[in-house]
Structures
1.
Amino acid sequence: MNTRPGYKPVIAAPVDEPVEVSLLAKSGAGEVYCGFLPRQWRERYSGYDSLSRRQGISANVTVLENLRMVALEAKKAGVSSALALNVRYSQEMLPEVLEYAEVWEQAGGQALLVSDLGLLLALQEKQPRLNRFLSLMAAAFNSRAVGFYRQFGISRMVLPRSLTIEEMHYIVKLHEDIEFEAMVLNDKCPYIDGLCNFYHGMAFPEGIRIPFEYQRAASEQKPVTYAHDLFYAGHACQLKFRAGKEIINPDWDNDFCRPHCAACCLQKLASAGINHWKIGGRGLPTEVKIKAVKFIKDAWNLAVDSPEEGIPCQEIKDLYKDTYGRHCSCELCYYPEDGMVEV
Amino acid sequence: MIMDYAYWIDWQNTRCEILPKARIYLGEECCEKRLPPPKKVMYWANRLHDQGNTLTFITPFVSDAGLIQVNNILDALSSIYDSYEVVCNDWGVFSLVIGRPSCIPLIGRLLSRQDTDPRLAQILDRPFQESLERDVWHVDGTPVRLKYKPPSEEYKTHLRTPSIINNRVLSYLSKTGSHRLELNNPLQGLKLELIDGWKATIYIPDVIVSIKRHCSTCSISLGSLTPNCCNLSAEWIHPSFPVPLHSCGNALYYLNNVLPDGFEDMGIDRIVLNMRISST
């Protein structure tokens, strides 16, 4: 295990509002990341996942001033900050995407999470001071693919969640001079991020109150809200499909009260040289994000205090139970090949 | 423009008839475990070469172990063919292929980065969407009228254009000897503006929508994976989807037999007919 003096893994936590930055930093986050979805972009390209992989106003910073504030608050709190510009873009979109990157840089933001080759090439030309982190969405599954992306100035790679820790370790060994990050909590989708073309839209379920923007128009009796897809029923990973007589559920139980988790694997991730640990969950309530950061921090402390690798797994499972009120399970395990076994 | 038709055959079906001199696509794009073993590669390379067929070998996204496998396959093919195309669906494979003089790299469907969710076609259907306008409830308790907003021209272009079609990207890829993109034929249509020297291929009838982390068939077989165990195809139906999805191994796709409007003028000069779909 990587427990050399001074070794401290960095927990990367999601933020949607500037006010969350200091709260998450105090809880143990060493880095924050966010998405941005301003009105100007939503008007032209929808409020779906067209600027980052998260849709909607709840999971994104929506005002330029707030984006600047996230970067400033992160600086104040002494944590680093990354902006997710991690989906594919058409050529016409890129000037605007680059503008947002520039705003982020000028405000003191430190990194961009990217996956689009066109954006990487444009950033290579502009040479911003911003670090470039290769997002999960880039789908780099082997050491050669990482080598390919490195020519575009990548300083960190977020490893695809479909890899085993052994596969990750192999990649890390061949690219020791860049940083690596892996998912450790929330959002373990059944589809492979960079190879999934299902879009993330906005559903308006019958009879359920949800957040969205609306406006009052003189010509209308009621306030109005607009959407491109009024038939959208939900993310494909959450829908139940019928296959003959059977009901197929992609088996994604994305419940933030019982999150997908890699806490038992923190030791192995550290030993594999993966020192940045990402918590998913943009759009979740602040208190849930804080709980997540504390949980990972405490799980790591249990792992560090353990005299032997593998010993604290039961304690970490107990911590999960104490934190979330329910037992973890194999289906919730991020890296089941490397992590937990059935209790 | 002369249209070139190519045929993607099932490498496991050694009894299938091959049109002499036609371009044949062989290989796998979604699962490294389904790559043909070297013996089968040699069988097909010899047979196709003897019949005068040109060859395009399709490779999937791969782990580091899969890279070795792909390298061995390319060694085998290079012993028979002086020149052949390799469809790359992984930038690691791509970087392997561009170093091989006998290989012509093609940018595969998984690298072209297209939106292929079939529901996107419904966004463009104004009468359908307007028929769904209704009241919804905001979280603050306000009843609000939900109305359709037609997508802007820029958004339509985005939905129809693969992001690989970017002058910077294509210029960069040209330097590596690549000049062809392999594309899905999504329901919402295609809009391509290729730079000089580039051509595109579209696949009929299968459109890849997503790749699962685990292969449902393999999970059932509890690790006893063989290349034969992934050929089952189940139809997934959901009322919010305009077409059924087909689950095959770890991939989900739908079928679209209708060629996009004006495809001849967009630089598409090859159509790949996926013969494996009709045989499953």
2.
Amino acid sequence: MDEMQEIMEDFLVEAFEMIEQLDQDLVELESNPDDLELLNKIFRVAHTIKGSGSFLNLDVLTRLTHHMEDILNKARKGELKITPDIMDVILESVDMMKALLENIRDNGTDVTDDIDIEPVVVKLDAISQGKNLSEVSEANNDSSNSQKEETVEVAAEDELTEEDYANMSPEEIEAEIERLIQKRAEEDRARREAKKKQQSENKNESNDAKEEPKKESKPETPAPVESKPKTAPKQEAKKSVPAKKVSTVEQTIRVDVNRLDNLMNLIGELVLSKNRLIKIYNDVEERYEGEHFLDELNQVVSSISIVTTDLQIAVMKTRMLQIGKVFNKFPRVIRDLSRELGKKVNLIIKGEDTELDKSIIEEIGDPLMHMIRNSVDHGIEPPEERVKVGKPEVGTVELKAYNEGNQIVIEIADDGKGMDPEVLKQKALEKGIISEKEADMMSDKEAFMLIFKAGFSTAAKVTNVSGRGVGMDVVKTNVEKLNGIIEVDSTPGKGSVFKIKIPLTLAIIQALLVSAQEELFAVPLANVIETVRITLEDISTVEGKSVLKLRDEVLPLVNMSDIFKIEKILGINQYLYVVVLGVGASKVGLIVDGLIGQEEIVIKSLGEYLKGIKGIAGATIRGDGKVTLIVDVAALMKLAKDTHSKTVVTASVKTKKKKEKPEDYVILVVDDSNTDRKIMKKSIEPLGFTIKEATNGEEALNILKNDSNIDAALVDIEMPKMDGYTLAQEIRKYNRFKNLPLIAVTSRTTKSDRVRGVEVGMNEYITKPYTPEYLANVLKRNLKLS
Amino acid sequence: MSNQLENVIKQQQEQTDNLSNTEQKDENVVQLVGFIVGNEEFAVPILSIQEIIKPIEWTKVPFTDDYVLGVFNLRGNVLPLIDLRKKFNAPQSEFDDDVRFIVIKVGEELAGFVIDRLTEALRINGNTILPPPDTSMERDAIIEGIARKDDRIITILKINLLLKTDNE
């Protein structure tokens, strides 16, 4: 029974693949009813499904496909012309076939109360005018399964040889026949065994006896094969299709998606290790500059990083599917729609071989479908109207996919009536989606984006196709889920263009690392439109909200620290960094405290417990082993909107108390020698400074981390646990200590020591012994005290 | 070296023998790991513990309860880090040398928990474990039972509730 199960699964996979193609072919057939090759192709699909179906005892499916096959066969022979009406019935039966197959997939049987094939069968019969031929084969069908199967296979083989004949030399044909006979013999054996097993289970002995001899006789006598070419080919028909391109078929392998996912995870780990290696190399490079082994290390690191990147791309490619898989559905959709709406629409598909990650392909179908429906329903005018304005009667919808950098762009363009931004604004105003003021400030592009707002629909009359007020906002949500962006352009009277831009893959992404106070965040680069440096004066306030005028746009400005409620410890600088984010239709300017750089990151989940945190999509592990959170830009924009209405950027920065005299300052003195600390204290304490002490670098660092009131530090170099150089390096890693005055006070006097001191970030370098006045002056100078 | 090894193995053998003897007497022995949070001693089943590590750096996560310190990297896995001292409203002390992260498998998920210090691995007769005090205190829901050892009172925690948020 397991074998049967396996066969059944193979059958379903194959059947669904064929049906996908079938829809497109049928629509094409309607415009080219005489295309014999196309007809043959379609005929074979119906055939294969019928054949396999009967073998698997799927009687309902077999009966349906059988009737379809009849019509197609007649069309193929030129006895019947395919009219749109006939096509409707055929398409209906294809739909039913799909439903049956789905039922088989879900329930393992094609017998269901939900699907009644009889009305369709009657229609199909009516079309083929109840000719004798169909009844005869029907009778055959019922009388003996096994016999039918054989004849079918035989015939198909014949068909195959006929087809290939033209392109082959006599020797090749010989070989091919030989091969096929052998294949057939093997397959028959397997099939017989399966059948036998089944039958013995059924204890149906009489049947068994009837079948055995027939089957056995067949492989040995290929000759009679040629004598019955008229019988409907079945089981073998499907083989005749792939057999034509044997070489290509053998080069593909079906792989379980889980295995690919697993592979992708492993690559992810590798990318992390690679990042780490690069980081370590950079550290080592600084320390051992000029050493010979660095060259070698450099070579290894760069070769590993190149190979890792290539490997990652290669594995990514294994997950890629052609977008044609999605596009194939649309000719049928357009056809049905245009008949339903009485419009004439021509669909042009371009770039269907563009590849996208499997997970994205699965998600993109529905939004695209909706947008296409929308284009036909709202975009394309009825034929009379088109003629009136001097356009061709048949409207055009162009569906196009292409690569653009790290993204893929899917474009849906129609030559319909287009959209008028003023009308859209008016509509949005009426529905209370925007305020009068917003409408005034809105650019045309922003106005087009209104159609993606929930509750917005421009269709004057509600059809069952679109215009129910749901839809476009769902499209936007779906696209955003894929980290995509939607752009709209439209000219009234000329048509509209929708562009969906989505990243190629979801697992490993390019990200911009930014800091908010001391914390790092990774922002998917796909959503970063640009980064700009602005001054405080560039920020304007409109209705109590901070905005940035950037070229011809007005961006809402939000501080990242406000969004994530991070305590503000940094003072405000003259310059601010703004990351302009775009998701779907909207844009926001995000103020960050630092731009760290661009990096390739691997998305890791935060796990069950922390999942669903607003604004966070996951985490990644960086080269230094630390975890960095990845921003969920779509959610962040929503949060930004809430924050935006509450907080004014400029006002939200805590202003520190102004310090004017030494009494306002706290100085940290770091030295392992008690005497040295005392000397330092004595030099500056009389001036009024508050003094804190630490005996080594580690202690000093802890004090600094926990006490934000330290204004400067005097640091010895030679200390246990952590020396002064390391301390300075560690301190400078923190954004808030970037400007903290650090003064080295040491007995090391060589030039290289001084240089090192500057390198690690010391502001001044004082050598012992020193006069108290000198130390005090240096300190005052660094605190800008006069 | 090999002698030492043999000795160790022998000792372990004896120990397990001894243990199995006691276990035969009473099969209901639970093995726990005890630790201190604040002023109290707690324990969790030894098998639920994946590992115990010294504190490492972690990353803060916004919009979480204050006892969720953030996430940390355990050999390539991103795990949540929960400060049991904050969760149990225990007095806050610095991260001194005794502080450890206990990595526990809670359901299907791993998580790190900050504790003040470890005490010891405990073997306790299950029959001597008392049920949790009969109060409706929210905090007590997390208590599996109370064990006594010598003059110590050890609170055994319910693993599967460790990751429950307060508002659930």
3.
Amino acid sequence: MAHSNAHPAAKTARRQDPRSKTCAFCDKQVAYVDYKDYPTLKPFIDYFGNIRSKYYTGNCLKHQKMLRTAVERARFMAMLAYRK
Amino acid sequence: MGFTHKAVMPTMTPSTEDARIYEVAVLYPYPLNQKDESKLLKDVEGILADAGGMQVAKDLWGRRGLAYKVKGFSEGSFAIYHYELDPLKLSEVDEALRILPGMLRHMIVKPPKNYAVVKYSETYVEWQKERESVEDLRTKEREEKIQKQVADKAKRQAKRATTDKKPVEAAPSAPAAPGAIEAELDKIIGSDSLDL
């Protein structure tokens, strides 16, 4: 691959172990993610207002779905932006 | 803060089996005079009371910036109500709130069982204070870093100035005697030992 040839150091740099990430909500034993709670939702929203993928945040599917509904509700009530 | 903990959640169960607890969120424009505001809120409460609702909790958030403009308003006020309602009356309430004049948005949500009501008007203020202190700390750190950088640069410049001076003094001394070199050359060329 041309890219790896250009940067031999890239070969040695390893991707983070996905098992090392843990769900932020599971750690706190969350039963429900509230759409009114801006400080909680904020870290899972990127600059453009998109929901960060669970691939990057390490959330479990159950809590990612809760988060999604919460964010969608907050967006409707103009607490969060649909698009920045 | 903000998370609903499994263990901590106090029970908020309806009094009868037919009723359920609903959360009604209302958004109305911010630059609204006192009279209109109280009238609007009274109307909302009236609609909910007409449907046989029983108020469980009420939380007025007050002025908040909106993430996007709603009907030309970039600022609004939120009011969160928790009502015990008959599920059959829900569509009625929803329709009545929808056609209520002077309102921007409303939403009726069914909170999960044993949901603990959190006063977000208070937690928000706390969070803002916390954020301010964090931001202050960050700006302080940044300023310190810049000051350090400036000091380092000044030091480096001072060091360079002292090291630069020495070669300047030494340089003219090297080619000081051009005549001496010529004499040396003549000596080499004129010598018999040179074998060409």
4.
Amino acid sequence: MTPNTSGITGSCEAVVQLKNLCKSYFLGHSELPVLRGINLDFNRGEFVSIMGPSGSGKSTLLNLLGCLDRPTDGKYLLGGLDISEMDDDTLSGIRGKQIGFIFQSFNLIPQLNIIENIEVSLYYQQVHKLQRRKRAEELAERVGLGDRLKHRPSELSGGQQQRVAIARALANDPLILLADEPTGNLDSKSGREILDMLDELHSSGKTIIVVTHDLNIASRTQRSIHMLDGRIERQVTNGGRG
Amino acid sequence: MISLTQFTSIVQVSLRSLWLHRMRSILTMLGIIFGVSSVIAMLAIGEGASREAQARIARLGSTNIILKTVKPPQQTATDTTQQSIAIYGLTYDDAERFRVTIPDAQVVVQSKIISHKAYYRNRVLAVELVGTVAWYPELAPVELNRGRFLSTADLHYSEAVCVIDRNVADNLFVIDDPVDTDIKIAGNYYRVVGVVSETRVQSNEDMLETKANSAPDTTSAGGRIYIPITTMKSRFGETSIQFGGSTGMVGEKVELSEITVRVPNIERVLPTRDVLDGILQRFHKQQDYQVVVPLELLREAIRSKRIFSIVLGSIAAISLLVGGIGIMNIMLATVSERTREIGIRRALGAKKQDIVFQFLSETLLLTLTGGLLGMALGAIIPIAVTYFGKMPTVITSEAMLLSFSISAAVGLTFGLYPAVKAANMDPIESLRHE
């Protein structure tokens, strides 16, 4: 029932393959198509941005990429494994193990302290407590919050909170990082810091997919995908670094 | 399914979120605390009352069948002739018939009770004079304190000896040692040979004993004096005269007030009762006797205890139910408050069952803590009831176990729905939730 999710190795060049991916919502009897056949490949180590106006389907695409939802039609291969047919528990496992989420509003759990917030996904992967703690401390150190381990999220600035969220996303060493407007709630200085951090992660070999309205962010990525009405309008390869 | 470390961290997280809403948690717990403590207290009071009743009955002897002389009800109504002598009650012949019919009945005790006054020096005491046999203590709830009980020799020679009970000893003899002194009853002296204490509780007598023999002095007896039944027969005869108000004199002839038959085992009690009843019916034209079977009373007491417990228990259980609904209400509020957290956890790899465990453990922590506090309170209430209300209470481990498992069951039942609801929320919707 539960395929070994750690079997996703990503040995193939394309970490993510979308084949004619469709998603429709059903309101009563009427069908509301949101994604109308997306064909995309993301390569290992790629830094990609997805752009588009509201209602273009980029959030839906992000949800599908994050295994929070299942496509109505088409195929989604993550590291060579077909996600479209998996049951809820398996999808939960894949989310925890292979996907790192970075949200616009940070989404830290308020009653947990920093180290515990970083540990959450490790906890659901049944990582042993001591290992969990060690890994979380390393990550907190890496994002420059090694001295704030026992603080609550509410005691940190927005930029710091987002750094905790990045540490949390990295905890299980996922195949892809999904960032949804990661600087949307931040002042420009903190935003720059976060983007620098994403750049740094990219150069260390992470596959990062960013959904954004911000052209400045998009220009820092290798490739920008512009969406309109549930379709890919165009793809732009930036001269970005890395 | 879940590892021990996961379990401990689930509990830790639950404790923390309960602590975060201390006031709410405590108020929610109160419902369970009062529910559990009232279940325990109710059962303890019920158990105490029934144990007392059972102990009283058991003291009469569960293998005993007690036959009592009762004044026939229609006697005074039909027979208006003055100075007539009413003959009724159990007889020596009855006792003999019992002995012959049921040879293995251990002992047959005959006794006769009349009220009289006992004198010692200048002190007077109204007593019940009981004519009985030497083996009376084997069947009756009396315990020898000093001296000896009546002997077969006393009976054989119709000796003028008596055994007094504690009440008589205390009231008639203030400083003197009662043993080997003489007390005067109805003009005759009797030597005290022993002192007994009655283990029978007074209120029990009201239940079991219909005052069979209404002799001249019907003032409440201050105690009992036992004399050999043979002495009783020769000195008092079987007839007593009562000076009634308008009807003048009413004479009564009663041979025996009470016969106690003990059978070898409990299974024999009810058949023997029927046999004895049959014999009596054949020889007694009127219903001038009463059959008391302590075993039956005991069974009756146990039956009524069960009903009592069920009634009290269900009242208390309803309060637990109300507490449970309160918990469910709070948990539903908590779930909707923490929708976003649920979404985050789901995005970070939590399975539905992880979410279920998370919320269920919170509810269980609430109810089990409430259950434990309720048990403590439930143990205190009966003690207070016993102390202030002078009512016997017995806290049974079953009651403790029952109410604790009920509180756990309440936690599971009322926690499951909110927990499942939380787990089934769409993670995308939950993440968007403000």
